[in-house]
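Most newcomers find our protein records easier to grasp once they have seen one. To make this concrete, we reproduce a full record directly below:

===
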Amino acid sequence: MKKEDKASYQKCKEMCKRGDCPPLLVKFDSHEGFVVEADGFIKDLTIVAEYTGDVDYMSKRENDDGDSIMGLLFTDSESKDLVICPDKRGNIARFVSGINNHTREGKKKQNLKSVRFDIDGEAHALLIAIRDIHKGERLYYDYNGYQNDYPTEHFV
């Protein structure tokens, strides 16, 4: 991560510790389950959330029934690939919806991007706004931003 980007990341972490976070609201949708909406304006390129949870080897989680596992680190050997598992410890990021990346309409919904960074030798997954997001908009990102392993054709 560039020095300037690391400074922005650190400032974001400090702001969140003070309670100065992006305006987000978790809601229950009878069709989609728990979802996240903007509770105020979110500017383009804002770090909306860091995807958090326990980090484990993908090979240990292949038969896991968790629906919120995110790929963190992809290597030449699948036995060394790492994932984030927010089932025991997580945050609001686990409720952000995925897009149906098999349809044009689904792709148009995307307003966040999942980006991986090396910060002081540790891998981090950040959800970053890719455009201005207005109050009431549901938050979406492409679950297959790095690999096409996640079946999304049934997403609305």
Notes: The radius of gyration is 15 Å. The CA atoms of residues 112 and 141 lie 5 Å apart. The first helix runs from residue 3 to 17.
